Amino acid sequence: MKNLLSDEKYNFISEKDKQFIVAFDDAITKAGYESNGIQPYVVFGKYKIEYFRAGLKTQKYLARIYIRDEEIVLRMYFSNIDKHREYIEKSPDFIKSPFINDYMRCNEGKRCGGIGDKNGICRYRKTYTIDNTVYNKCAEQSFMFFQPDISHAEKYIELLTTFYPDRKRPK
Question: Could you report the per-residue pLDDT of 44-58, keeping only the tens digit for each?
Fold first, then answer.
């Protein structure tokens, strides 16, 4: 990844963000995930890096790094959040925050206009409980880690592997 980031077209990325991308990419690769490198993107940044479990025929993206003009954003995809409630509740604020902040809190269709509704049920809504509070978040834009810090890269991987353990790896 470091060699890719040295390309002149990525000069707009801060050195701090490049260091995070390299550290995260190294850590996630060691954990058994892979990416298809840096790809052009238009929705949430100029470029993206998508991570998925290595060796599977169907690539289900578990994490993305969005590369924007002024910052990078780490996004992770989670299901069955209640199953990992205790882990999240005991996590440091930088891990816990995307689960409990107001960013992309679902307002029963008021935010998205109900575009995810199917038979009166939003297929994008994630409902879970953290610290005895029920949260409804829109899965389409939730679980974003803005300005991720290189010192937290291993903790992000721990979070990811908590939700998506390697079934082959001994516990």
Answer: 889 999 999 877 777
Q: Which percentage of the chain shows pLDDT scores above 70?
A: 88
What CATH number belongs to 2-77+143-163? 3.30.310
Q: Tell me if 33 sits within 8 A of 54, measured CB to CB.
A: yes
The span from the CA of 27 to the CA of 171, in Å, is 18
Question: How far is Cα 160 from Cα 24, in angstroms, rounded to an integer?
Answer: 12
If one counts every other C-beta atom within 10 angstroms of the C-beta of residue 24, the result is 24
In which band, very low, low, confident or very high, does the pLDDT at 104 lie, cut at 50, 70 and 90? confident
The domain segmentation of the chain, as residue ranges, is 2-77+143-163, 81-138
Distances in whole angstroms, Cα of residue 93 to Cα of each of 88, 153, 169, 171: 9, 14, 28, 26
Integer CA distances (angstroms), 27 to 20, 23, 32, 43, 64, in order: 10, 6, 9, 26, 14
